[in-house]
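Support request, priority: normal
Reporter: lab tech (M.K.)
Component: structure prediction queue

Hi team, I submitted a job for MFS transporter from Catenulispora yoronensis yesterday, and the status page still shows it as pending. I've pasted the exact input below so you can check whether something in the sequence is tripping the parser. The sequence length should be 526 residues. Please let me know if I need to resubmit or if it's stuck on your end.
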Amino acid sequence: MSVSVGDTAGAGADADAGSGPAKAAGGVLAATCISAFVVNANTSAVSILLPAISEDTGASLTSLQWAVTGYSLVGAAVIVTSGALGDVFGRRRIFIGGLLLFVASCVLIALAQGGGLVIAGRAVQGAAGSTILACGLSLLSAGISGKAEMQAVSLWGAASAAGAAAGPLLGGVLVDVTGWQGLFWIDAAIAAACIPLTLRTVPESSDPTRPRSIDYAGTVLVAAILAPFVFAVTEGSNWGWLDIRTLGCFAVSVASVFGFVLVEKRVGAPLIDLALLRNKVLVGSTVAILLVAGVINAIMYICSLYFQNPAALDMSPLEAGLATLPAALGIVVTAPLVTRFVDKFGGRTVIAGGFAIATVGLLVLAFVQDSWTYAAFALPMIVLAVGLGLANGPSSAIATACVPDNQVGAASGISNMGRYIGSAVLTAVIAAVFNAVGLHNKALGASTSEALAKGFARSSLALLLFTAFGIALALLVGRVRPIGKPQAQHYAAAAAGTAHTVPTKSVPKPALSPASGPPPPPTTHA
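Reply from support: The job had stalled in the queue. We restarted it manually and it finished. Here are the results:
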């Protein structure tokens, strides 16, 4: 999937940008930014809704954890494939397909009478959401040129970040006003409205230079690696870690890894170019992105459950949404500052420092007691979010700055897949720790409030191990070659980096279909 942002073409690019049809530019910007906001708001809101969904459907919170991890699992499997489908069959066509799928998933969830359909709908939503984000960003690149393109990607990133930050609050408001189903009905209506807007104003585009084959086998194998692994982690404490079911799930994951490697070596257009995995800087930055996404999603998950539990803080959904807002805003507000910090201190230092700051926040949360009020949670949550924001920005930039120009699209795909994998795996791991520790302490005679606090504290300690690993990772990977003074495209990439890795290297502009006019000139990947 090719995506370009930035302006090194000079005045000619600006002239082309100015002469492009304003209707098309405005249409693609509106459709992609609105849909990005909705997708990210929907994703971050679901954890706040889980207690209400559990009460209404009778499904346990343990099983509804799959409404969160299932979304990310499918997103990880589909994110690269959806971009490839857009390159081959038309980005507008696949983008609209993603919108239709998103609408269908929202309706399925809103009408669900049981937890199973909610989980199934969220899995479908994972495919839809990753498709909308991947193809939406490509449509921006194809439809807008020059400095306007940079501004458009900045707005797209801001819309994504705003959606992620506002989601828990919007979810909390809607639970009180409309019931938990209201979020999905409203999201379905907004996504549906983007379809005619896209059809009327967005030109079709594709990549005629890309091989026409699609690595469907690789997509299936990614899911076959992740789903059994997460299932084993989630159920292992109940089954027993040496139970045949647990070991069987791990065995399927391992076998799927070998199968994936074999497939990727043989297909013409692999999901992942295995040669890129020899690039230790790319692998290191992707693991850092994985850790950031996993930690922030896992902590938001257990916060939403703990804050709303009657035996803990006993908040309403709206109060819980407000309570998680500082953490969500912390990672968003930090993004614009990252580029200047990297220019002054270097990427490795900022990443290691960010993980160190996050570790401090988690260390405080590892001492949670059942007597704590919300005030005791607020500051360490903000510290954690700021630290993760500092680690995320440079990691996203380095992921594509460390490869040749002709590999930035593949590197971007790997890092974005890592973001989804981190969200799925770490949320599953921490949910399992939270539940197991709580049940263990209850069995030892602790009160429900004490057991919940112990579960939260131990979960924070487990997450601390991941952020501590992030510090070591940043220091061990090695120095990254400086890229010079930050330009506007680097700030654009930083704005988008909270939701999606946007490359910052020079690549050819994506081609438009014949009906949409001649392709614009080359610009800069950001």
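Strands lie at 205-206, 506-507, 511-512, 523-524. The mean pLDDT is 85. Let us know if anything else looks off. Ticket resolved.
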